[in-house]
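Thread: "does anyone have the structure for this chain?"

Original post by V.I.:
We have the sequence but no experimental structure in hand. Need at least a predicted one for the grant figures.
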Amino acid sequence: MTVNPASGVPPTPALLVIDMQNTLVAIAHRASATVAAVAGLRARARAAGAPVVFAQQQDEELEPGTDGWRIVPELAPAVGDTVVPKAAPDSFLGTELDAVLRARGVTEVVVTGFATEICVESTARQALSRGYDVVLVADGHTTSVRPAASGRYAAPEESVAHHNEIYRNLRFPGRRVRVLPAAEVDFGRGAASYGPVAAFPG
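Reply from O.Q.:
Generated one for you, tokens below.
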């Protein structure tokens, strides 16, 4: 496991899966490949005993209990996973996410999900501001499919590549920021300890 040069100790990672819900994945660029990458990460995180945390958007378009609000079946939370409801792009804002991570001794957040420029970006920056190291999974985040005539938005593949490049070059005092493909993410070898699926109120 890599040691953080800022602290001199190995990180304690958690996998964070943001807004991988039916309605959102249905409009996502490279949806199947992104879901598969995240599913593989979750399996490895669980095998290593690393926490798996889902941030789940709920609002007037994603009403709790509806099919569109549910996390996609391939990633449906299982025993030991934690689900944190949220109502803003920043998964930490007004939620229990920070408390959940700190209770588990997490020092590094492995960030995946939807959408690259909004919830993924907002959450990754906030993680850094709150004292966590960040791994942005290069092939584990995505954004919406956009027609060429949809204004001045960058094309999906360009947006994902753009944010990956920003994080490859981002310097944040006292933090380690990395961009890794899913295949290279290392959760270490912690002892697995799983209880019921935990859900926290928004």
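V.I.: this helps a lot. Strands lie at 13-18, 52-57, 82-86, 108-114, 133-142, 177-180, 198-199.
O.Q.: and The chain has a mean pLDDT of 91.
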